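User: Predict the structure for this protein chain, please.
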Amino acid sequence: MRNINFKLFLWALIAALVIVGIFLISRNILVSEEGKGTSDMNSFVECLNKKNILLYGSPQDNNVQAQLSLFGNYSHQVRVVDCTANVSACEGVIIFPTWKVNGVIIHGSLSLNVLSKFSGC
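Assistant: Here is the predicted structure, written as structure tokens:
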């Protein structure tokens, strides 16, 4: 009987640790995705621009607008190639938004965290 109680205790402890671990990991992801502070975001956008990282899409597209909204007050500083006005510059773009990061075309929306990792910013 004592052996069974110990096993139950051990499994409960493991389950509790797993739950706490999942909570801490998800909390960290949410905090990093909530957005950067004002000065951090300004530096981030400046870095993207210095590295000539471009967002391709149409300003009227909901997905492009959602992508830009991640940058908050700095969304107007993100370099956007308007594919409705400049079709030739958007050759190879199959969906909006599309990013060009360090010469690599990445189709679809990116989180700030992923964009930061791809860009090195």
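Residues 15-34 have pLDDT under 50 and may be disordered.
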